[in-house]
Amino acid sequence: MRPATGATAGVPVDEPAQPDRIRRSSDAIRFGVSCAGLAVVMLLVSIAQQTTHGLQTDIAQGTAHAPRLLLSLATLASSFGVLTVPIAFAIERLFRKDGMRVAIALLAAVIAFGITVGLDDWVTSAAPGGVLDSLIWGGTRTAPVHTDIAPVIAFVTAVGMAGRTRWQAVTWTLIGLAALTGLTASYASVAALAATYLLGRAIGHGTLYAVGTPNPRPTGTTVVNTLERLGLCPRRAARLDDPGDAGADRRYGVVLDRADPECRTPGERRPGRWDLEVRVLDRDQQTAGLLYRMWRTLRLSRTTTGRALRPLRRSLELESLMAYAVDAAGARTPRLVGTSEVGTEAALLAYEHVPGRRLGDVPDDEVTDTLLGDVWRQFRRLQEGRLAHRRLEEDAILVGDDGRAYLTDMRSGEIAAGDLALRLDLAQLLTTVALRAGPERAVRTAASALGEDALPAAVPLLQRVALSRATRTALRRDRELLTRIREQIVALKPETEAAPVRLERFRPRTIFSIVGLSVAGYIVLPQIASLDFAHLLSTATWHWVLIALAASAATYLAAAYMLLGFVPERLPVGRTVLVQVAASFVQLVAPAAVGGVAINTRFLQRSGIRSGLAVASVGASQLVGLVVHVLLLALFGFLTGSTHNATKDLAPSRTIMIVVLALGLVAGAALTIPRVRRFAASRVRSMFSGVVPRLVDVLQSPRKLATGLGGTVGLTAAYVLCLDASIRAFGGSLHWTAVVVVFLTANAVGSAVPTPGGLGAVEGALTLALTISGLTAEAATSAVLLYRLLTLWLPVLPGWAAFAYLQRKDAI
After folding, report:
1. Which of 38, 123, 456, 778 could form a disulfide with 496 if both were Cys (CB 3.0 to 4.6 A apart)?
2. CA distance 284 to 24
3. Confidence category of residue 3, pLDDT binned at 50, 70, 90
4. Which UniProt keywords apply (predicted)?
């Protein structure tokens, strides 16, 4: 076999010059993680001082029994080695002409030294006590961070020892010995050492990201040399990908010297420009998009996503295994010729080059049913081999110049895949083909290749969250595409179960709920803690409490009539009221504006009303309720500002006008954003497409219209009466128009905030509004607590009983 040296010296490689330094996303991520860890240490030492002090005492007592000679040797070794070993590594790097990396590491060490000296000499004396006292446990002889270790840690972090395990082991062992001797001599605390380590790491990674690390990526010439060692004889090579695309892997086209008998020449030469297509995996690129992948991994079930981060070697092995497995399964794919690591910072995979275009680049008139059928046949072979591709986007489907389909991009694949992963692939490819050729052709060609019985398995997984990032972006242009794909499959197989599979561990609104509850606790709990409940119970006017309780019960009757008025079909009144009681239980696990809608829709469907009409009826009642809400808020806001006995601060007509104008300006500014405008238009269009015809049906029956409007107004009146009675139960008094405005405002806030039952938002809004209206803080808080007890918490147990009963009766 021909040696690498000399053989490739004259091989031309057409590629742009690589930058001398790059900014790696991994450095920014590690800098953020180190800063977060430092903040956690500060928090722990401030709230758990006794624990940190006890840990320090235990360590001191444990090391007191160690042989003094051993401790002395450890101290001596660490004192000399903690500086000597990094210096030796720096010299070794200089001999290897890696001086830029050493210079950056020295800069990080200087920055760390300056910061630690500043903390030790200036900050401690300027701000003694608190967290600093916890960090420097042991008296004035200690320091919050240690100048002898932090610069070394920053230097080692910035100089980079990846792939040099012996240097890493020796260096971190000596740093650990230095920390241990500090603990045994009681001039360092555990908290201070943790802070020192995290500070050094943060400075090292921060310096690397700010200055940029020397580019470790191998050049095209190095890639060509590696191909030579694989027994291939490159004659010419060129960069194929766009160098400006920072997130893409490097790809090279390579022409082989087929005339040399000593060289391996895989396959027959295809009628194309290149013999090989080489994909290079750069180590620094492995963290590209890491935060997004981590978010997907946390949010979705484990079987839905792959690993968020893989080592370079693991990525190489996985893609190689998938390439061989796909070829063995009989699916058409470019053949993998060879793999190899390229130094310590990259690896390559060499594929036979297949001349052709990606599916997204093929003109519409060439995307024939024959081509799509061939795509589905290759996919069927993947399914039969239990192979999950996980990235079946347009770029993963290559249409060769011979007109045949090839599956590529196996980096995220999985062998011996489970049923869910295979069904997710089916849903992904259905969406990809539908984006290119329409849902009708996608389903028809899939059915011809896979069989009609295979398609219903994808219906529950046709949800945006189950698809790839690029596909979700493409779906913004056609938000109804997934619905149309489902409809095509259901038309083909009417017995298909269309209920979506739960893929998410949690939804983003769960985070908003937690934040909302935290804010509510911060606002409401201090007020509750300051209340004297014994005094409140003794001073409450109980007949007003009973009136508030009756008004709360009346809300369920009003809500039932509100729904009945917008359903032309006949429904039992008693069961409809029971559904509203059950909704009081559901709203504790769903946002206020969602729980009631869901259970009412389900009730109408179980009552024999078709799904579309059920959704339209509930939507009509919600739409009329919204219009009535806005009209009442404007009317009573005006009356409040015009009434002499009303509050002068809550909602005078001038303030109402200012608020309305401000909201109008915000809405107008938001609508100038195309994405917001499209979202609003799609929501309004979907609402009126079904709601308006339903309203027309209701308008033809004056009795139904009166029932619906009466229930809507009665619901507001019952809640207002409950709030007013709660205020009077504790000796407060407000003009009734002010109470109406307070309720309408707080109810709007509670519906907008995605917390269960508007929890936190309603309490905060009501307390603030009542206080502004003139009530004392004690009376306002007491009234709000009673109101929420009667309307939110007290109905939970009856609501649960009603929910269970209706489920047993198959009514919801």
Report:
1. 456
2. 6
3. very low
4. Cell membrane, Membrane, Transmembrane, Transmembrane helix
